[in-house]
Specification:
By secondary structure, the protein is α+β, with helices and mostly antiparallel strands. It is built from 12 helices and 16 strands.
Length: about 425
C-alpha cells in the first residue's frame, strides 16, 4: 500500500475508534459491572481466557444478585468473543468492553464491543471492572502525534500552550506590570528607566517559569518550541537565557505575531509554516487554502453534503474534505410517485425531519431506522471512486469555516461538473 493509502486507512481507523469511544463514554452501569480488558499482542489468548474464567468464579462472591449476574454475563460474553482468536491477538493487541448498561426506565441492556489492532500497541494487560468503561488508554493512543511548545509574548501579556498534532491548546497566560514609556511626575528619568527594566525582567522570568513548568517535564517528547511576539520582545526574551537550558536548545524558530492572547498562538502556528512543514495542522491548512483558492477563483470546489455527494457519485472529486468534528447521520428517502431517491444529512441525536420529494414534491415516508453515519456513507462512496479523504481539524480559522459555513463537508474536484 502507498504511503498516501496507509495514511487514509489510518485516518479512517482513528475516526472509527473515536466514534466507538464516544459511544462507550456515554454508557453507565448501575454498579461496578462494566468490564474492560486490554490485551497486548504478545499475551496468549489462553492466558486471558484463564484470567476471565477466574474472575467469573470470583464474581460469585459479589453480594448484590443483580451486579453478580451482570458481571458474570459480561465475562461470559467476553469469553465467547475470545474464541474467535487463535494463539495471540491481532497486531497492536485487542480491547474488549462488555456490561449491562442503563437504557432508561430502570432497564438495562447488554453491550459488548471488541476493538482490534488499535492505532498504538496495547502496552500491558489490564482488567477493569467499574461503573464506567475504561477508555483513557485508547484516548491516549488516538491523541494527535507531534508535540510542539508555543510561547507568545510582548511586554503586556503572554500565553503559553501546546501544538498537539492538529490541536492548538492554550494552557497558561500572564499579564505584566510593566509601566508605559511615559514616566509619572516626580520620578527621575533614570529611576523610571531602571524600574521599567526591572519590571520587564520580572515579567520575562514569570513567562519563562510558565514555559519551564509546562515544557521541561515533556522535553523528551517535544519536536520543538516556537516563540512569537513583536521585536524586540521575543529577541530579548530568547537572548536573555530566561528559559531552562534544556528547552532553550529546543527552540526551532522565532516569529513576528500581531497578538499575544490565545489567538496569537494560532497566528504563531500559521507564521511558522516552514518550520512546521511536517506538522498535521499545516497539512490541513494547505488543503483548505487550495479549497478556498478554487472556491474564489476557480471552478474545482464543491461543498455541502448534497452537492459534494453528487460530485462523489460522478467520480469527479479528487479529495474529499471532512471536518473532524462532524457528527451527523444520513437518511434516505424513496419517493413512491417518481422513484426518486434523496439523501439528507441530519443531526445524530435528532429524529428524522419531514421530507418532500425534490423531484415531484410528494411527501414521502421516512424509515428512521434506515440511517447511517454520514462520514461512513461518504467515505464508502469515495473509496469506490478512488477519491482521497482528508480529515480537517477545526483548530484553525479555515478549518472552523469548513465545519460552520460549509456543513463539515467539501471537496476539490478533478474536473468541473457544473454541479
Amino acid at each position: 500500500m502507498s504511503q498516501k493509502g496507509e495514511q487514509e486507512t489510518s485516518d479512517r481507523k482513528k475516526y472509527e475508534f473515536r466514534k466507538v469511544i464516544e459511544d462507550l463514554k456515554n454508557f453507565e452501569g448501575s454498579g461496578t459491572q462494566l468490564v474492560t480488558i486490554y490485551i497486548p499482542e504478545d499475551r496468549q489468548i489462553s492466558d486471558v481466557v484463564a484470567h476471565v474464567t477466574q474472575e467469573h468464579s470470583e464474581a460469585a462472591n459479589i453480594k448484590s444478585k443483580q451486579t453478580r449476574t451482570n458481571v458474570q454475563d459480561a465475562l461470559t460474553s467476553i469469553k465467547d468473543r475470545l474464541r474467535y482468536y487463535d494463539t495471540y491477538p491481532p497486531d497492536n493487541g485487542l480491547v474488549l468492553f462488555s456490561g449491562a448498561v442503563d437504557s432508561g426506565g430502570g432497564r438495562t441492556e447488554m453491550v459488548t464491543k471488541v476493538l482490534e489492532s488499535p492505532p498504538q500497541p496495547v502496552e500491558s494487560f489490564r482488567y477493569h471492572c467499574d461503573s464506567d468503561f475504561l477508555t483513557g488508554p485508547l484516548e491516549e493512543m488516538l491523541a494527535d502525534k507531534g508535540l510542539y511548545g508555543l510561547v507568545v509574548l510582548d511586554r503586556r501579556e503572554a500565553n503559553v500552550g501546546w501544538l498537539k498534532g492538529k490541536r492548538i491548546e492554550p494552557v497558561k497566560s500572564a499579564s505584566s506590570l510593566v509601566p508605559g514609556k511615559q514616566r509619572k511626575g516626580g520620578q527621575s528619568a533614570q529611576r523610571f528607566a531602571r524600574l521599567r527594566l526591572e519590571a520587564i525582567d520580572n515579567f520575562y522570568q514569570e513567562v519563562a517559569g510558565m514555559a519551564n513548568d509546562l515544557f521541561v517535564p515533556k522535553r523528551h517528547d517535544l519536536e520543538g518550541i516556537l516563540v512569537g511576539g513583536p521585536s524586540p520582545t521575543k529577541d530579548e526574551f530568547l537572548d536573555g537565557d530566561y528559559l531552562h537550558h534544556e528547552i532553550q536548545d529546543q527552540v526551532i524558530g522565532k516569529f513576528d505575531v500581531s497578538y499575544t492572547d490565545e489567538s496569537g498562538l494560532r497566528e504563531l502556528v500559521d507564521n511558522a509554516e516552514d518550520a512546521l512543514a511536517d506538522a498535521e495542522v499545516i497539512k490541513d491548512k494547505k488543503q483548505m487554502e487550495e479549497f478556498f483558492e478554487e472556491l474564489n477563483a476557480g471552478n474545482l470546489a464543491t461543498y455541502g453534503f448534497e452537492q459534494t455527494r453528487r460530485n462523489l457519485m460522478m467520480g469527479s472529486v479528487d479529495r474529499l474534505l471532512i471536518s473532524e468534528d462532524l457528527r451527523k447521520d444520513v437518511v434516505v428517502y424513496d419517493c413512491p410517485e417518481c422513484a426518486n431517491t434523496d439523501y439528507e444529512m441530519i443531526d445524530r441525536r435528532s429524529s428524522t425531519s419531514a421530507h418532500s420529494c425534490s423531484e415531484c414534491g410528494t411527501e414521502v415516508e421516512v424509515d428512521d431506522d434506515a440511517r447511517e453515519d454520514a462520514i461512513d456513507h461518504l467515505i464508502e462512496i469515495a473509496e469506490q471512486r478512488g477519491t482521497e479523504t482528508k480529515f480537517i481539524s477545526t483548530d484553525f480559522e479555515k478549518g472552523e469555516q469548513l465545519y460552520n459555513a460549509f456543513g463539515g463537508v467539501a471537496g476539490i474536484l478533478r474536473y468541473s461538473t457544473g454541479v
